[in-house]
User: Which sequence fits this backbone?
C-alpha cells in the first residue's frame, strides 16, 4: 500500500471528513498540519500544483486533491485500487 499524506488545518471540517474516511477504511496516513506554518503551506501548494486549500491528499506520489476528490474516488469505486497500487 502506498504511503498516504494529508495536509490539514485543525479547524477544517473537510480535513476531518477526509481523515474520517481514511480511518473508516483502515488506511494509515501521515498528517501534516500547516496551521500557522506559512512555509509548510507554501510547500504544500507547490507539491499540490498551486492548490492552497486544505486538505490536500496524496497517495504515494499521486495528488488526489481535496476532501471532495477523495470522496468522489470512493463513490466511483476507484479509491481501493489507488490505495492498492
Assistant:
Amino acid at each position: 500500500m502506498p504511503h498516504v499524506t494529508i495536509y490539514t488545518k485543525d479547524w477544517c471540517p473537510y480535513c476531518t471528513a477526509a481523515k474520517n474516511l481514511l480511518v473508516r477504511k483502515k488506511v494509515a496516513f501521515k498528517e501534516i498540519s500547516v496551521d500557522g506554518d506559512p512555509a509548510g503551506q507554501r510547500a504544500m501548494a507547490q507539491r499540490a500544483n498551486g492548490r492552497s486549500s486544505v486538505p490536500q491528499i496524496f497517495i504515494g506520489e499521486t495528488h488526489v486533491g481535496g476532501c471532495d476528490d477523495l470522496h468522489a474516488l470512493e463513490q466511483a469505486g476507484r479509491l481501493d485500487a489507488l490505495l492498492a497500487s
